[in-house]
């Protein structure tokens, strides 16, 4: 009995070590996901039924199939050049960080129940993907192909797919039918590709009725993408060359929660552009803006750093006071503008919930940046909290421009 007890304890300790290794695995970490992001969870109501299988489970010899996670097969970081055969019971397949160049149909012959595939950080090219290999996976919900060598959009894809990540490839166009027949798609990431305005000619996104997040950052766009679905909540357009937002553009996107357009060429924004009922976060830093604009009641965080604003006209931001509909703005970042004085105290009547205004350094002259009398304005903080905030912003100022670009270069799916 003593020997059996010792063996049982050793088995439990081994299983626990495997669990600790993989329990927090989140593919968004590959992009330096923000610490408060929420991981993606499958819809349990659509959980694929897996036939009963004996222990130990079948596993490719090149991979790890821990008993604590019998539906997962870990083949990542193993210098693999080909995809191993996938057992019938596998639902999560992790093949990232290998040297895989092709995706043949053979290994997926028995992968009836696979729901998540990560093939990121490989060397896959479009013409090396067998036609229809993904489309046959009728339970597939999540597909990661970022950081590969794809020159074209990898269609056809299964109608079950909910999340598709294609960032950091060489995709330059989207065929008109590439995204047809995908009613369940909620998140599409096309950041860091070679897309230009011609991609919108065939209205590729217009029929994606359930799309809530679209990432088009770090491409070659010069205009706002037309005909986006009204379901959209998170839109990433930073690091493009967009110079203008058409008036009433967002009338068709009333559900927008977060918009990122930093690192573009915006100069003027029509006054009521962001008259959106659900907007919480707005990033417009690193543009060429000369004045502010209307702030919707819902907005909480505003980033307009590194522009050419000389004066914060609060009446443009807040034309009227309405005690029954208090504006929710709590944070403004205005460093690297041309401000010579702090924001008018009238702002605290318009935005009574303001907690922080970060002034930082201002580009008042063409020579060296200047500091306002108070680099950070903070309310409702203890002296200790205030000092911590000051220290954090000092660290922020010491970051290099490359750090800022890396921080703003990707729209993380953290909602």
UniProtKB/TrEMBL annotation:
Cross-referenced SUPFAM superfamilies: L domain-like
Gene field: Omd
Native organism: Sylvia borin
Biased composition (Acidic residues): 399-408
InterPro entries with a match to the protein in the record: Leu-rich_rpt, Leu-rich_rpt_typical-subtyp, LRR_dom_sf, LRRNT, SLRP
Disordered as annotated region, ranges: 390-415
Annotated signal peptide: 1-20
Occurrences of domain LRRNT (ranges): 58-92
Protein's name according to its UniProt entry: Osteomodulin
Pfam families: LRR_1, LRR_8
Family designation: Belongs to the small leucine-rich proteoglycan (SLRP) family. SLRP class II subfamily.
Role played: May be implicated in biomineralization processes. Has a function in binding of osteoblasts via the alpha(V)beta(3)-integrin.
GO biological process entries: cell adhesion
Keyword vocabulary terms for this entry: Cell adhesion, Disulfide bond, Extracellular matrix, Glycoprotein, Leucine-rich repeat, Proteoglycan, Repeat, Secreted, Signal, Sulfation
Assembly notes: Binds the alpha(V)beta(3)-integrin.
Cell compartment(s), UniProt: Secreted, Extracellular space, Extracellular matrix
Domain of life assignment: Eukaryota
GO cellular component: extracellular space
